[in-house]
Amino acid sequence: MSKNLAKPHPELFEKAIELGWLNRVGVDAENPLKSVYAFYHPSFQEYFAACEIEDWHFFLNHVPEHPQQGIYRIFESQWKEVMLLWMGRKDVDREEKEAFIQALVEFDDGFKGEFYWYRAYFLAAAAITEFKNSKFADKIVQQIIKWSFGCFYKNLKNSQFHSSIIEEARAALPKADYHKAVKFILPLLDRSKYPHIRHEAIKTLGVIGTGNCDAIQALNSIIDDPSENICCVEIASCSLGKISTGNLRLKAIKKIIDLMNIDIHETAVRYLSQLVFESLDITCESRDLIIENMAKHIEKIDIHLYYFPTNWLSAKAFLKIAPTHHPQYQYATDIEKRNEARIKQIQDRGIDMLLNDINILGLGDITPQKLETQIIEIISNLNLILHTNQDDEMQERACNCLESILLGQKFSNKAIFSAVIQGLKDCSDHRIRENYAVIWHCAQNLPYPTFYDAWHHPPTTPHPEVPDTTAVGFTSTTSTLNWQTFPQDIAREINNQAELSNQIQLLCIDSKNFINPDNPAAKIYTQMLKQGCPKSEDATKTMADLQTYWDLLLMDSEKSLILVFYNSRGEEATGFSEAFLNDLSKFDGNIAIVSDNNADSLTAFSPSQSDLIGAIVRWICQIVWES
Length: 627
Prior knowledge:
Elements: H1 2-6, H2 10-19, E1 22-27, E2 35-39, H3 42-52, E3 60-61, E4 71-72, H4 80-87, H5 94-105, H6 115-127, H7 137-149, H8 163-172, H9 178-185, H10 195-208, H11 213-224, H12 230-243, H13 246-262, H14 266-278, H15 284-304, H16 308-321, H17 329-360, H18 368-373, H19 375-388, H20 392-408, H21 414-424, H22 429-434, H23 436-445, H24 448-456, H25 486-495, H26 498-501, E5 504-510, H27 521-530, H28 543-556, E6 560-566, H29 578-584, E7 590-594, E8 603-605, H30 612-626
Parallel strand pairs: 5-6, 6-7, 7-8
Antiparallel strand pairs: 1-2, 3-4
Helix pairs in contact: 3-4, 6-7, 6-8, 7-8, 7-9, 9-10, 10-12, 11-12, 12-13, 12-14, 13-14, 13-15, 14-16, 15-16, 16-17, 17-20, 19-20, 19-21, 20-23, 21-23, 21-24, 25-30, 27-28
């Protein structure tokens, strides 16, 4: 400030004070006659800082094997705006900016999970808003779209992107060059695409399409098309309402209300409520129309919509725009209070479940207060369980505890995140994938050199010992078959063979709770969803419906899908019904049953045969080799 303003341009310095850009906040402690000034807003300070930076290496100087010797300001939040202002400087050579963008998109963090590479890439997406003609711009925007669509984009594998990356990509997309993003998303509105791809594309336009004529026109066309799918019309109406103004926004609101009046259901109510919260210029006509229709249905919504967050959202939306003297205002207030209490109950129940799991793991009877004060010790003990206890159920509990603690609390102590990384770094690949959200959270809170040291170097102090009770529930891999962990045991054997695990997706279906043994289609479909399969836009109530859904999965998957039916009652199970097996035999693909049933056209394994898991894995290996 002194170099660029006060000394060479004292008149500008005085003008800055007059305008309030600079404010006198005190005097120098060593020289009371010397005033101390501060910027009215951090943007001024960030701008002047950006003007002083000559080289992009100020933000990043990567020393791959010795990051403590490098510079990684790109991962420090206080430097982000400075970096963006530097990218926008006209006096910085184009080559300099291109070199910086290239360094970001090619950043090699040295981890299988590529945690900091993702962070660097998301930063590059923000940087191209200040450097729109970068040669990397199209590539970056297309990559962010792929991540934000997750498993919905073209033929990407269902498990290719973790939900943490999908969420971050969706947050990054509006900050990237949205005009480029719209250009790449519009082709995905084609009706030849799968419904879930179209739905996601329509939703995305509602996030990034503000002021873009092509996006507005495309959404308007969907709303006006009488042959369009109702679900697409609802989503398009919501998206159009978010990115348009005036008559078009009113049109979108009316369309959602029309659909809501035909049939009260979750999506229409939720979309109308979203528009109330996200639209900044709802006109009086729109407001009165929304109040009238929400008031007409608010009791029906409260009674008939089982998903209470939608009821809560609709009540909050109504309370935001309705006058306090409205006859339904008190009813909406009661809904809001009741649902806030339910949220509190769920949160309390989550804490109780966490403390119960910690107790089952043998870490003692810990209270919430003790959890806060002994967090490092608890995390170290959980890490030790993950490394020494071979029981999948116990490991799963330990993983759930870590996630509940890390993602449910706010910690400023960096040692907590380092302790988590030190504990998880040597776990199996599939365990790291299952804990990706926890590790990603740590990567958001640790400087890159600190994370690198925690991952690649052993802790300076040993983990504290855990009580003997941590061995409760322990079973070795050579012990008697445990039907409760049957799917995990097969998956563990498959994951031990990296080449095999990369080529298949295993789906294990437990028939123990089949309500209708002859037609368990809905129950099977639910279990498939829980194992990462995409949702179907059509009902899946019959075995014929399930067969259609299965055929689509086979067409869309780049991996070999393996479907194994078993009963967790093991040898006590009565077997599968003949009607079910007859229907299942008509399915294509690789399907096996664990049962003593006679199934001529299906691969069958007896639940009592020796080395059952090995036999199933060998069958899977044969499938992969033959394909």
